[in-house]
From TrEMBL:
Domain Enhanced intracellular survival protein: start-end pairs: 357-464
GO terms for MF: aminoglycoside N-acetyltransferase activity
Source organism per UniProt: Nesterenkonia aurantiaca
Pfam family, one: Acetyltransf_9
UniProt name for this protein: Putative acetyltransferase
Gene Ontology BP, a term: aminoglycoside antibiotic catabolic process
Length: 468
């Protein structure tokens, strides 16, 4: 008999007539330097969908090499040319449209790991990115087909979670994704005088040395591995970070080096490297003189503060900005004047979709021992049902349970919610109490909220330093 609580593959939504989809790996030609024509057409179409320039052959080939290294899977939706010829617009499409090899929908997925804070370390996660739909072919089921196909593959592959970042916040909740981490834009005053400058309460141990970005490959790998393993909410990084942080990619021109990029590393007292920072000066037209931090990855808090102290000591610089800071940054509390640290913006980053509730919850961090019943609703039918969650010594055991309306010999508090809401709750970015106040816990009783909150809610928000 089939296990009704095991993850089920969702029904794959059909495409409108005249469209077809194809899934294929990113690939290079036999020379190993040139991407295949199919991969090149996909990459150009996808980048145009995000309003990027039409890439040159060299730029496309460099992108293709990264796609291949990350073993990314591409799914494209194409217009059937014979069907299009029968439409009133078919002749115009043939005359002025893009080559038939260029898709009208794009979708990429690949695997990294997600740190959910559990005792066994990061768990495998299916990452989704580069989702575009040609505006001329909207309302033809393209996005729904691409997403249901991808989630079906993820379930078949035994993945516990899927994750993505979004350009528009109102699109992916209907597919069960919940906003799971946020990040801050920050501005740090480095100026002197009137008590408004940068001064740490304590001097971090060790020494920060200027570094050649092109020599940072090993430092980047080891520093991020340590950061990833200690940071709940962290997602494993794609190869683009390696290329950008070593200056081999200029984000404004992927065929060129970023000759403005500077770097530094923190050396601990024992001689080991605790982290790195990459940055560039914003130009002499900025007022005040400003450094923009691209990436700051530290294996520990002392290295984090030491790297900031180095930035503050740069000559003729009065301000530093960073677009990817944690919501709880120890720097703010380490400053003699906390007002020199300003949050100028907040935004969501990582969105999580639970695919296997047992695997996902058993890989999560918990605050206290206890037990509760979970009633999970999943409109796509992937992982809904009734479960009992028992937490002991910081680790959870999740087992199928009889539905709440059937007799049970154990009286447990009950948490009722959608899989989208569970995605938001999963990494600890939002509390049970807040979700209950927002009306997102359905029929969960108020007295149950307090008991469950003590088990689930985590003391600090998660942080993801990786965009994809």
């Amino acid at each position: 008999m089939a296990d009704l609580h095991a993850p089920q593959q969702p029904e794959i939504a059909p495409l409108a007539p005249g469209l077809r989809s194809e899934t294929f790996p990113a690939a290079m030609d036999a020379d190993g330097k040139t991407v295949t024509a199919q991969t090149a057409a996909f990459a150009r179409t996808a980048e145009q969908g995000f309003y990027e320039p039409w890439f040159s052959d060299e730029q496309v080939n460099r992108i293709g090499q990264i796609l291949v290294k990350d073993e990314q899977t591409l799914t494209a939706v194409y217009v059937d040319q014979q069907s299009a010829a029968d439409e009133s617009w078919g002749n115009a499409l043939e005359q002025v449209g893009f080559d038939p090899a260029h898709p009208v929908g794009t979708f990429v997925d690949y695997d990294k790991t997600l740190n959910a804070g559990g005792p066994d370390g990061p768990l495998p996660a299916r990452l989704i990115t580069v989702v575009t739909v040609n505006p001329s072919f909207r309302r033809r089921g393209i996005l729904k087909h691409l997403m249901t196909s991808a989630l079906s593959r993820a379930v078949e592959d035994g993945m516990a979670v899927a994750a993505l970042t979004v350009s528009e916040g109102g699109i992916y909740g209907r597919f069960g994704f919940g906003c799971a981490t946020r990040e801050a834009n920050i501005q740090v005053d480095l100026g002197e005088g009137h008590g408004q400058g940068f001064a740490l309460r304590n001097t971090p141990a060790g020494r920060v040395i200027s570094a050649d970005p092109a020599k940072l490959d090993e430092v980047i790998n080891t520093s991020f591995e340590s950061f990833h393993n200690r940071t709940r909410g962290s997602i494993g990084r794609q190869q683009t970070y390696q290329m950008i942080s070593t200056a081999r990619w200029n984000p404004e021109d992927l065929s060129a080096w970023n000759r403005k990029l500077r770097a530094a590393v923190h050396v601990r007292e024992d001689g080991s490297i605790g982290g790195y920072v990459t940055f560039q000066h914003e130009g002499w037209d900025t007022d005040p003189s400003t450094i923009r931090i691209h990436d700051l990855i530290a294996a520990d808090d002392q290295s984090h503060l030491a790297l900031w102290d180095y930035i503050a000591g740069l000559d003729i610089v009065r301000r530093a900005t960073m677009r990817t800071a944690a919501l709880t940054d120890p720097l703010q509390s380490a400053l003699a004047n906390p007002r020199s640290y300003k949050v100028t913006g907040l935004r969501d980053l990582l969105w999580v979709r639970i695919l296997d509730v047992v695997k996902a919850l058993e890989a999560r961090a918990w605050s206290a021992d206890g037990a509760f019943r979970l009633e999970l609703e999943d409109a796509m039918g992937i992982t809904g049902g009734s479960f009992t969650v028992r937490v002991h010594d910081g680790a959870a055991t999740v087992t199928p349970a009889a539905p709440a309306d059937e007799e049970s010999t154990e009286d447990l508090p009950t948490l009722q919610l959608s899989v989208e809401t569970l995605g938001s709750l999963y990494l600890g970015d939002v509390s049970v109490r807040t979700l209950h106040a927002a009306g997102r816990l359905q029929d969960t009783a108020a007295e149950d909220v307090e008991q469950i909150s003590r088990i689930i809610d985590l003391p600090t928000p998660p942080f993801c330093a990786t965009h994809f």
